[in-house]
C-alpha cells in the first residue's frame, strides 16, 4: 500500500469543475438516469446508480434533482445514451482518454476531434493510449475524512489496493471487481465519500511545463466543457509552480 502521491493536478481539475457547476449537474444527472435505466432504480440494489448518487451528493446536487433523474429512467421520453471512449494525444505528448455519454455519436465525435485539433492535440484510434493506463476502481474522499494514517488503515481494512493522499484529499484504488464492495466497507469507517467510479490510472506520468502546460489545460477545459463528455483522464504531471502561473 502506497501512502502518498501527487494530488495537485487532480485538485486543479476539481477547481475548474467547480466553476462549471450547472454543466456538472447536467452530466451527473445524465449518469444517474443511464445507471437507473441499466439496472434497478434503487441505489442500494444498483452499484452504478449508487456511485452516481454519491457523486451527485458530493457536489451538493439537491435531493429533488437526484430523484427526478432516477424517475426519468422509467419515462417514455428518456433519451438513449451510448457510452463512447475516445483516445488521443495532447501537448507535450500527453496521453488522454475521454469518456462520453451521447445520444448523437457524430456530434460528439466532431466536437471531441475539434477540441483536440484546436488545442495542440490530435485524436487517435481506439487503443492508441489506453495501453498506458490501468482500468481500476477509484473512491475519493476529501481531506476532512481524516489524516493519512487513518485513511490508510481504513482502506487496508476495507480491502483496497492502494491509497494516494495529499493536502487536497484521498484517492483510494481498488480492482474493478471490488470497487463497490470496498466503497461500502469504507462508509462505516470514514463516512460517505465524494464518489466511487471506474477510472483510468496512468502507469507513467509525463511532466508538462510552460506553454505546453497552458495549452494542455485549455484542451482539457475544452473537452470538459462539452455536454456529452463525462470524464477526461490524462497521464500529465504539471509541477506546482506551473499550476500557480495558470491560476
UniProtKB/TrEMBL annotation:
An example of a Pfam family matching this protein is TACO1_YebC_N
Indicate where this protein resides in the cell.
Answer: Cytoplasm
What UniProt keywords apply to this chain's record, in alphabetical order?
Cytoplasm, DNA-binding, Transcription, Transcription regulation
Top-rank lineage group of the source organism: Bacteria
Ranges for domain TACO1/YebC-like second and third come to 81-235
Gene Ontology MF term list: DNA binding
Q: What residues does the TACO1/YebC-like N-terminal domain cover?
A: 5-76
Q: Is Ribonucleoprotein there in the keyword field?
A: no
Where does the protein principally reside?
A: cytoplasm
Identify its protein family.
Answer: Belongs to the TACO1 family.
The record's PANTHER family line, in alphabetical order, gives: TRANSCRIPTIONAL REGULATORY PROTEIN YEBC-RELATED, TRANSLATIONAL ACTIVATOR OF CYTOCHROME C OXIDASE 1
- Can you name this protein? Probable transcriptional regulatory protein GCM10022276_16160
Source species taxonomy: Bacteria, Pseudomonadati, Pseudomonadota, Alphaproteobacteria, Sphingomonadales
Amino acid at each position: 500500500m502506497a501512502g502518498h502521491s501527487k494530488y495537485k493536478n487532480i485538485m486543479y481539475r476539481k477547481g475548474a469543475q467547480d466553476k462549471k457547476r450547472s454543466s456538472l449537474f447536467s452530466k451527473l444527472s445524465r449518469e444517474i438516469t443511464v445507471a437507473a435505466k441499466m439496472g434497478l432504480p434503487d441505489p442500494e440494489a444498483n452499484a452504478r446508480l449508487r456511485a452516481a448518487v454519491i457523486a451527485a451528493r458530493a457536489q451538493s446536487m439537491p435531493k429533488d434533482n437526484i430523484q427526478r433523474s432516477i424517475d426519468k429512467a422509467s419515462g417514455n421520453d428518456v433519451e438513449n445514451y451510448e457510452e463512447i471512449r475516445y483516445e488521443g494525444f495532447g501537448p507535450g505528448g500527453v496521453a488522454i482518454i475521454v469518456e462520453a455519454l451521447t445520444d448523437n455519436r457524430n456530434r460528439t465525435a466532431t466536437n471531441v476531434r475539434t477540441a483536440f485539433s484546436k488545442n495542440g492535440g490530435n485524436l487517435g484510434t481506439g487503443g492508441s493510449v489506453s495501453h498506458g493506463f490501468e482500468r481500476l476502481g477509484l473512491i475519493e474522499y476529501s481531506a476532512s475524512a481524516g489524516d493519512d494514517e487513518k485513511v490508510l488503515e481504513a482502506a487496508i481494512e476495507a480491502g483496497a489496493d492502494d491509497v494516494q493522499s495529499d493536502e487536497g484529499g484521498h484517492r483510494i484504488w481498488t480492482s474493478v471487481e471490488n470497487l463497490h464492495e470496498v466503497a461500502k466497507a469504507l462508509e462505516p469507517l470514514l463516512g460517505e465519500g465524494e464518489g466511487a467510479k471506474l477510472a483510468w490510472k496512468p502507469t507513467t506520468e509525463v511532466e508538462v511545463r510552460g506553454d505546453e502546460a497552458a495549452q494542455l489545460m485549455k484542451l482539457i477545459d475544452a473537452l470538459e466543457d462539452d455536454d456529452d463528455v463525462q470524464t477526461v483522464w490524462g497521464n500529465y504531471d504539471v509541477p506546482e509552480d506551473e499550476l500557480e502561473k495558470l491560476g
